[in-house]
Amino acid sequence: MTRPTRPTVPTPSTTTSEECTDVSAPPLAFGAENPSADCIADSAGGLTFDLDAPGSAEAAAHWSAALVLRRRGGAAGGSEDEVRLPLAPSGAGRVRAVLPSTVALPEGRWDVHVACGEATPQRLLPGLADLRSLVDRKPGPSTSPLAVRIPYATKHGNLSLRSWLRAPHAEAGDVLVGESGITGHGSLYRVEDPAAWLAGAVVEARCRRDANLVRTAEVTVDGQDFTFAFSYAELCEEWRGGLDVWDLWLRGPGGEGTEPVRIARILDDVADKKQIFTYPAKSFSAAYAPARVSPYYTVDNDLSIRVDERPPVAAR
């Protein structure tokens, strides 16, 4: 078996249909001096932002001085797409805004601005980030939605947040690529009794090409932890060339509160897993043609499996 690695240089991956089309603001003009914000994360999902007071001391104390979060792709000023956090003096010419875990932040990418008075809000740059509390985060028992916010630098060098809000949540753990199939481990959070929820649960692999194609794997349960496996043979049985993507869902035995849950990896400090958590592709002799199978994380950090054509071996 081969365990996943975290290479320092991202490896190329096949483009899939869920690629994110929203982009952050363009880079600043030469000589532009936008302020930067330092971020501290807490283990409950809250964030604290510290930055130099914008403008004069009088401006910093203006009643409307705020840190503004705008959801990318949302409606400007919409109640679900903009969050304003008041900025308050924190000493030594600095101001602070706090985003508690109790403030609901819908899933998506949020661009961070600073607004003061009637001036046009400025895009913030990333400063120092203390995200140690997010590493291997273990949420406590609760049935409230799990809030995850990870600050990151965009490709243009701006500060943004990646947000998730899930209940229940199935956190992906180790994923092992074996000789005959893929074995996955996970943990269930934000249900009253995880072991009872998991009793009789299964993991479903749902094919994007055809909604009627579903493969089911029973789970082995240990408290709130679960294990499942899919063979390459069952994933390739209906494959007819090209790219097939199978999305993984944890489905309870039925009844209220056991709706299917997307398996994802969000409980750490990595905002975008796709190019960081990479797995080897395993060659398989499918009935239609030689194939290769590999697990991967989507742009939303959800766990999926892709089946693709194996490239021909180059002549020596």
Number of domains: 2
Low-confidence stretches: 1-32
**In sequence order, what are the helices and strands, one letter per element?**
EEHEEEEEEEEEEEHEEEEHEEEEE
Mean pLDDT: 86
The major beta sheet can be summarized as: 11 strands, mixed
- Which strand-content bin applies to the residues? 35-45%
Class from helix and strand fractions: mainly beta
Count of extended strands: 22
Short note summarizing the structure:
With 316 residues, the protein is mainly beta.
Commentary on this structure:
There is one protein chain. By secondary structure, this protein is mainly beta. The chain has 2 domains: 38-166, Immunoglobulin-like, CATH 2.60.40; 169-309. It contains 3 helices and 22 strands. Strands 12, 13, 14, 15, 16, 17, 18, 19, 20, 21 and 22 form an 11-stranded mixed β-sheet that branches. Strands 3, 4, 7, 8, 10 and 11 form a 6-stranded antiparallel β-sheet that branches. Strand 5 and strand 6 (94-99) form a beta hairpin. The longest helix is centred in the middle third of the chain and has 5 residues, at 194-198. The radius of gyration is 22 Å and the shape is elongated. It starts with 35 loop residues before the first strand and ends in a 7-residue tail after the last strand. Residues 1-32 have low confidence and may be disordered.
List the helices and strands and how they pair.
Elements: E1 36-41, E2 47-52, H1 57-60, E3 66-71, E4 82-86, E5 88-91, E6 94-99, E7 108-115, E8 122-123, E9 125-130, E10 146-153, E11 159-166, E12 169-177, E13 181-189, H2 194-198, E14 202-207, E15 214-218, E16 220-222, E17 225-231, H3 232-236, E18 244-251, E19 261-264, E20 282-285, E21 290-297, E22 303-309
Parallel strand pairs: 1-9, 12-19
Antiparallel strand pairs: 1-2, 2-6, 3-4, 3-7, 5-6, 7-8, 7-11, 10-11, 12-13, 13-17, 14-15, 14-18, 16-17, 18-19, 18-22, 20-21, 21-22
